[in-house]
Amino acid sequence: MKRITLVGGGLAGSLVAVYLAKRGYEVNIYERRPDMRNVEIPAGRSINLALSNRGIHALQKVGLDQLVLDKAIPMAGRMMHDTAGNLAYQPYGKEGQAINSVSRAHLNVQLLQLADEHENVNQFFNMRCQEVDIENSICWFLDEKTGEKLEVKSDYILGGDGAYSPVRLKMMKNDRFDYSQSYTKSGYKELNITPTAEGDFAMDPDSLHIWPRGNFMMIALPNPDKSFTCTLFMPYEGDVGFDRIQTDEDILEFMNTYFADAVPLMPELLEDFKNNPVGSLVTVRCYPWHMKKATLIGDACHAIVPFYGQGMNCAFEDCVELDHCLEEFGDWETAMDAYQKRRKPNADAIADLALQNFIEMRDLVGDEQFLHYKKVEHQLCELHPDLFKSQYEMVTFSTIPYSEALSVGAKNTKRVYDLITEDKVDQINDRNFVEAWFK
User: Fold this and answer.
1) Residue 41 has what pLDDT?
2) For residues 370 and 166, what is the distance between their CA atoms, to the nearest angstrom?
3) What CATH number was assigned to the domain covering residues 3-42+102-181+282-357?
4) What residues contact residue 402 under an 8 Å CB cut-off, 6+ apart?
């Protein structure tokens, strides 16, 4: 049996451990954080996740999809809030299509528990990875509870250890390893909308709420306890930036100016704004993902910004592809090489799409021309589902490769705008016309 050291027991790490255990591998997970089943999540670090088709498919293969979906809240569309509090709704897809708001903590706990059920999986917490030898498959960990240092030898190392991966850091010290890291000029801060006095949702729970404000925005996702987790995305510096908001008066003036309809729903606004940290948003690209006796997975090889809701779904798709490659090739080295070659173009594509969608969410969703475009696009999806798919539909409601969704989606987007510009929208009921137009 091949013995694997898995550095990082987050979402991708715990899921891939289950896939590998089902194939008979012994997997030893070393996670830097405490066991999430026994601790509270720090305030301001609990960002909800949007689970969609790719992630559901990955969970389905290990029998966890329904357990997670039972605690999820489906969101069928976007609800835009303008500065006057007026609402505009925009469906995400066709009837019955929705993305699912899930708790990161709940999902991680379910994955940890599933991993525990396999006798081939062992989990160790509070273990900080200090050094990695990718030639001999040795990792050195510090037990942050006892101070003990531990040397772990195995047949292979998997790095599921996030955007600042120690395993990747070791790879970077080798020749011909490509790496780039870029931050957006915006950070994020979590806020909270509480349930009403009657214990109900304060806003429509079937939507992802967006307050688009040009170069900044706020979004809100519903939680099972009838609250909403809000995330304010804003530049660190500038006329409207986190650095300009220091006092209670600054906070209230800013929020009442730009998000007046949300303020009455936030009784803990001042406390949340002052105490919750400002997080950063990073995109990481690298290659190769497989080197000597180590392979990367998830954010360790392709951290992306959250604006397409695909970070987790993409990482889960890594697990599926890695499993497919092991099934197809059997030989570990061949499988890992195939895995990286198949996933790298798709990881780059969703990184580009996520950055692109930031502009759409903060700048365009309140624009009348853009709303008209989305209306026409939605009609095409409904009328001719076999001939036309929007980029959003391909990314979110299918398992079409991200690279194809990027290229075909861009082409389709241009052709929809051409339809509008050339005043041919009234012809979209004609199937022959649509088939020729999007050929």
Assistant:
1) 63
2) 43
3) 3.50.50.60
4) 310, 314, 345, 346, 347, 349, 350, 353, 395
